[in-house]
Design brief:
The protein is of the alpha/beta class. The protein has helices spanning 2-19, 51-61, 74-83, 88-97, 117-126, 159-166, 194-199, 221-242, 264-301; strands spanning 38-42, 68-72, 139-145, 151-154, 176-178, 181-185, 204-208, 247-249.
Length: 302
């Protein structure tokens, strides 16, 4: 009886010898799509920049944590502190404890009223004197080369100095000299740094636009005309770059003036409202990117 039981086994071995071994290979599971890198592009807007804190609060509350951050002017200040490891509530605490005198050093020579050294020291103190490349999240500060008019993207070096350069509003701040080159506010060439966020490797870019918009009323006087003209130029320039973002958040901060630091609570609340309304669009953009990455892998495995 035992020999009879071995007959099927012997037969299968003989057949395998006649026809050759079956080329059986384990089927590898489809590769896991790489993580979607989320970029946050924080635009300039002076005191309106407190709205960025409200935006970050809602992103974190919704489980959305940016992997890279780029900032222009006021956005570079908030962006550097966030990239250093501060969460949204710590940023808010810093905002409410901020004494404007800590960042405003007046100088009557050098092309501006504010020197910017105190802002540089303030930022470096809060990031524990770490250079940009030493921050927890990859960060870029965008400034403008005053000699060539080209965009400058700082991704390494002195964090406070890069933020100072990015925030050097022409006529208000003195230009920031870095290695003998003068730099001014990044908003001159990149009001909302979408492209800089892409350069840092972002797959999805969430842009926060707090820039001033042209007034529908006719400007009065020479300064009114000049101001309106500059606003229009910046607005048109910003629209081109914003078109390359996946989602644009626009807090309603038009009523807040550039030096209205007492309105920080209002700015934060408007940032929260605008970000909350944008969460579905952000999640949809992330899901679409994930699906587009998973589809090719699924086709190969069929």
């Amino acid at each position: 009886m035992k020999s009879l039981r071995t007959l099927p086994l012997l037969a299968s071995l003989l057949l395998a010898g006649c026809f050759g071994q079956a080329d059986v290979k384990p089927v590898a599971p489809p590769p896991t799509p790489a993580k979607i890198r989320i970029g946050l592009a924080l635009g300039g807007g002076a005191a309106k920049g407190f709205a960025h804190i409200g935006v970050i609060k809602m992103l974190e509350a919704s489980g959305i944590h940016p992997d890279v951050v780029a900032g222009t002017s006021a956005g570079s200040v908030v962006g550097a502190l966030y990239a250093s490891g501060m969460d949204a509530f710590t940023l808010q605490e810093q905002a409410f404890s901020l004494d404007e005198a800590k960042i405003r050093d007046v100088g009557f020579f050098g092309g501006g009223l504010v020197k910017g050294e105190l802002l540089q020291d303030y930022v470096n103190t809060l990031v524990n004197q770490r250079p940009i490349q030493g921050l927890r999240i990859p960060f870029a500060a965008v400034a403008t080369n005053l000699q060539t008019g080209e965009r400058a993207v700082f991704v390494s070096g002195n964090t406070g100095q890069a933020v100072r350069a990015s925030s050097s509003i022409p006529g208000v701040f003195q230009p920031t000299d870095i290695n003998g080159v003068p730099y001014v506010d990044g908003g001159v060439v990149s009001p909302v740094p979408v492209d800089a966020a892409r350069q840092l490797g972002a797959d999805i870019v969430i842009a926060v636009d707090i820039s001033a918009k042209a007034s529908p009323t006719r400007p009065e006087g020479m300064m009114g005309v000049v101001g309106q003209s500059i606003t229009i130029m910046g607005q048109k320039l910003g629209e081109q770059e914003l078109a390359r973002a996946d989602v644009v958040i626009r807090p309603k901060v038009g009523q807040i003036g550039p030096t209205d630091f007492d309105a920080k609570n209002m700015a934060i609340l408007e940032g929260e409202r605008a970000a909350l309304a944008a969460i579905p669009a952000i999640k949809a953009a992330i899901a679409a990117k994930q699906e587009s990455r998973a589809t090719p892998a699924a086709n190969v495995s069929k």
